[in-house]
Specification:
The protein is an alpha+beta fold and 440 residues long. It has 13 helices and ten strands. Strands 5-4-3-8-9-10 form a six-stranded antiparallel β-sheet, with no helix packed on it. It binds heme C (2 copies). One heme C (HEC) binds next to helix 9.
Length: 440
């Protein structure tokens, strides 16, 4: 571990230490461990302005793209996180907005356990996967290190082909949710590109991914299969001949059909809500991932669509480092954070365990107040502060869509987060609600 004595490094670790001591949480994140000082985080290079090409796009298109980028959570992974001095917890550093993994910034420090999906590093821009490390790229319009030299066609082809820079070479790697974003229309993807052309250009060259060549081949094949299945859900595909060994088997309870209230919504409203949910990648965290023998990797299990962390499914197995943001467990529905373990919720319309018992107003209030319908504080990593940029009309469409999907009975366990931490996070949410959603 590198050490620094820069003022920001000291400030950062002092604040982290204060929070950890406040919560009585040890450096490893174990709830009962003795409090101890985490090692100092490496200081990042200062922010450097870049040089952007002229932006020919209309204000209207840029505004549409801004809404899509913020509500789809692109900033979660492409804007480096720091210890926010105002909030006292890690949050996106808007002075580095969308500039990707900072040059020389830290890799994830801990270990993924057997079956875990990924470990998110200290700046939320480096990702340790079971087979390598990936880094989010610079999406600002800097000509040398960002998207300034890309054409609109290259940008669209990244999503259409699942290949780096839209070419024919290496695949786009996880955890970039390109497969969900590609369900957007060309117009929407162009709006995203237009917005990215309008933001401040920052000069920053993220590290090169660390992926062994055999894995690269497997992921090319995987991405091609995802595209084939989206074009034809009934396509018969074969398992790859080579590939990583399967993760330990998960013993999940069978899927149980629930009971939805009798509600009906106009078809176009449901369709609009579906686009927001599917293209907004809500399934990534709310649909449990299980081993998919055709893909030969864990993938979202659509027979459990949007039903949240399965009853009895495993917690994250590995060990996050002291500054890592989160460890994602084997079903992508359990998240180990420095203050405890949080589980994604059941959004299907089952009355007893999902969203069927909520009114539309209660649903809107989740995003407007950062609380669950039962009043409990909404915890990370739910990106509510980004999703809440959606106008009420869009959130109503999301609710209509959620009421139209198969109800599944699945009681998600309560988060393992001590009451003091929940109290602290209530204060954090209250402060976040004082700002406009997203960049400020
Ligand atoms: C869960 C984290 C995550 C989220 C959310 C995310 N990205 Fe990414 N993105 C990544 C990572 C990691 C890479 C690097 C992947 C690689 O090296 O192939 C990446 C790469 C990219 C690339 C370059 C792909 C290539 O290799 O040519 C583009 C463009 C991109 N992201 C755009 C977006 C946009 C737009 C959004 C929001 C709509 C978004 N990303 C949301 C993690 C994320
Ligand atoms: C990075 C993972 C992640 C993504 C992406 C995500 N969620 Fe969540 N979501 C969670 C987690 C974890 C919780 C539970 C938080 C808690 O217990 O306080 C949650 C909670 C919620 C809740 C509260 C449910 C309840 O029972 O009170 C709603 C509603 C919700 N998410 C909707 C969405 C929608 C809509 C999207 C897509 C626009 C989305 N989520 C994307 C992780 C995620």
């Amino acid at each position: 571990m590198r050490e620094t004595t820069t003022p920001s490094g000291v400030l950062r670790s002092a604040l982290v230490l204060r929070i950890l001591l406040l919560l009585g949480i040890g450096a490893a994140g174990a709830l009962n461990a003795q409090p101890q000082a985490p090692p100092l985080a490496p200081a990042l290079k200062p922010v450097r302005p870049g040089k952007a090409p002229p932006n020919p796009y209309s204000k209207k298109l840029v505004a549409r793209g801004r809404l899509l980028v913020i509500s789809s959570g692109c900033n979660d992974c492409h804007t480096p996180w720091h210890l926010d001095p105002d909030l006292g917890v890690p949050a996106p550093d808007w002075t580095r907005m969308l500039s990707g993994h900072p040059e020389g910034g830290p890799d994830p420090q801990g270990e993924v356990g057997p079956g875990d999906i990924a470990l998110i590093g200290p700046t939320f821009t480096s990702f340790k996967l079971p087979f390598g490390v990936t880094y989010s790229l610079n999406l600002t319009p800097d000509i040398d290190t960002g998207t300034g030299s890309w054409t609109e066609k290259m940008f669209l082809d990244i999503f259409r082909k699942g290949r780096h820079l839209g070419g024919d070479g290496r695949p786009v790697y996880p955890p970039m949710p390109w497969d969900w974003y590609r369900t957007r229309s060309d117009e929407d993807l162009k709006a995203i590109f237009a917005y990215l052309r309008s933001i401040p250009p920052l000069r920053n060259m993220p590290s090169t991914e660390k992926i062994p060549p055999p894995v690269e081949g497997v992921i090319v094949e995987l991405n091609n299969k995802i595209i084939a299945l989206q074009a034809n859900p009934g396509a018969k595909l074969e398992a790859p001949k080579n590939g990583p060994p399967p993760p330990p088997a998960l013993a999940l309870k069978p899927v149980v059909t629930g009971t939805a209230p009798k509600r009906s919504y106009p078809a176009d409203l449901v369709r609009k809500g579906k686009t927001i949910v599917v293209a907004g990648a809500c399934n990534v965290c709310h649909t449990p991932w299980t081993y998919n023998p055709v893909m030969r990797v864990p993938a979202p299990d659509m027979t459990r669509m949007l039903s949240g962390h399965p009853e009895g499914a495993p917690d994250p197995q590995g060990k996050p480092g002291p500054q890592d943001i989160a460890l994602i467990g084997p079903t992508f529905t359990s998240f180990q954070l420095p203050f405890g373990i949080v589980y994604s919720k059941n959004l299907t319309p089952d009355i007893a365990t999902g969203s069927g018992g909520w009114t539309e107003e209660k649903f809107l209030a989740i995003f407007r107040t950062a609380r669950h319908p039962d009043g409990r504080v909404l915890l990370p990593p739910m990106p509510w502060d980004m999703v809440r940029i959606l106008p009420d009309a869009d959130l109503r469409a999301v609710f209509a869509y959620l009421q139209s999907i198969p109800p599944l009975r699945n009681e998600v366990p309560a988060p393992k987060v001590p009451p003091e931490a929940q109290k602290m996070l209530e204060g954090v949410n209250a402060k976040m609600l004082l700002h406009a959603p997203g960049p400020h």
